Amino acid sequence: MPELHPQCEPLAPLLGTWQGGGTGQYPTIDDFAYTEELTFGHVGKPFVSMIQRTRNRETGEPLHSEAGYLRVLPGGDLELALAQPSGVVEICLGTVRTTSDGLTIELRSSQVGLTPSAKEVTSVRRELSIVGLGTDDASLISELWMAAVGHPELLHHLRGELAKLA
Length: 166
Description:
The protein has strands spanning about 15-25, 30-40, 50-55, 60-70, 75-85, 90-100, 100-115, 120-130, 140-150, 150-165. The chain is mainly β. The chain has a ten-stranded antiparallel beta barrel.
């Protein structure tokens, strides 16, 4: 494994695979429960890859996936370029900051691109927080808000709590 690029040091605690479960809701769908796997990796360049997959908690059926790259800029600013097979592409800007027991990443979409067949998504907000870093019960909290399909305001959509695989 190559050394982590120095610009990516603030994201080092994310590296690896995290698994757990969560819940989702939105005015246009029934509430649901899911399992999630979120993997962060690197190749020694100034970015960290991110791959996310979810499944229906009851049936195991695939629900969603997305893949992208996080880039840390000088001063702690962060960029995320993310693609979804549903035809949605996000460009998000935000920050990464260390906390007393982990880190917090906050991102907001600056652009959302849609293929002709994609459902309308106009804005996205994401937050990733690691709590309890360095302990056996460290967790990654992943939350997402979106403005979509006739709802112009950002509404809470997903919250997952994941544990890092050994």
